[in-house]
Amino acid sequence: WFVAFHLLTSTKKSFSAKELQRQLEHKNYEAIWALLHKLRMAMGKRDEQYTLSGILELDEGFFSTEMNEEDKRKPLKRGRGSQKKSKVLVMAESAPVEKENQKGRPSRKVNHIKMLVIEDLKSETIDNKIRATVSATSEIDSDNSTSYTNLKNLVAQHYPQVIPKEDIGKILPWVHIVIGNAKRMLLNTFHDVKPEYLQSYLNEFCYKFNRRYLGELQFDRLLVAGVAYKNEFRYH
């Protein structure tokens, strides 16, 4: 367990169960796989204790995941509704940079993030996530999606706007940097991800991002999180 704690917190990337099994010289792959998911659940439980505040960027990401057997028998949908895509609500505490940034760098600085797998893009679904994770005193920047029509009633200010595709990286830079980095982590480390485990992997990504300046202290913080929360991870 302690070696797993160390390896998982010593890199910005992640570890596949197969790689950790190799490093630990452990015979049982399933035990290592479950151990990692228990640690990721502890990470998620820890981050659930915090709400985002200040100025936030908000958007959705669509992550490639495996199709279950039922979906494989259905005609394949295209675009956002594809059975191959899982929907993720992405939020980032973001504020304008006071001094002029280097060319190519984001015009905003980022603090904490959250990434939440959602079943659909209905406004009710989005509202429930915002109530649970965002301070009512916050201000939200987003596109003008109909999914966000009620946000003005949940936070201090909501600034929806029509965002041309070429400007999305300027207006909502950090949510899209985060989405791109998370997708690369999943593709490079895990290749195929089942929808029911996507949140677990995103828990790890967000936990590490939110503690990116802690260095070696990440080990101690994860150790505390591991013993502080009842772990309810179950294999599906």
Could you describe the 3D structure shown?
It is built from nine helices and five strands. It is α/β, with parallel strands linked by helices and 236 residues long. It has a single domain (2-228), classed as Nucleotidyltransferase, domain 5, CATH 3.30.420.10. Strands 3-2-1-4-5 form a five-stranded mixed sheet, with helices on both faces. The longest helix is centred in the first third of the chain and has 20 residues, at 29-48. The two termini are 22 Å apart. Pfam families: DDE_Tnp_IS1595 (PF12762). Residues 51-210 form the ISXO2-like transposase domain. InterPro entries: Tnp_ISXO2-like. This is ISXO2-like transposase domain-containing protein.
Task: Reconstruct the topology from this structure.
Layout: H1 2-9, H2 17-24, H3 29-48, E1 55-64, H4 69-72, E2 85-96, E3 108-118, H5 123-133, E4 139-143, E5 157-161, H6 168-171, H7 173-189, H8 195-210, H9 217-228
Parallel strand pairs: 1-4, 4-5
Antiparallel strand pairs: 1-2, 2-3
Helix pairs in contact: 1-9, 2-3, 3-8, 3-9
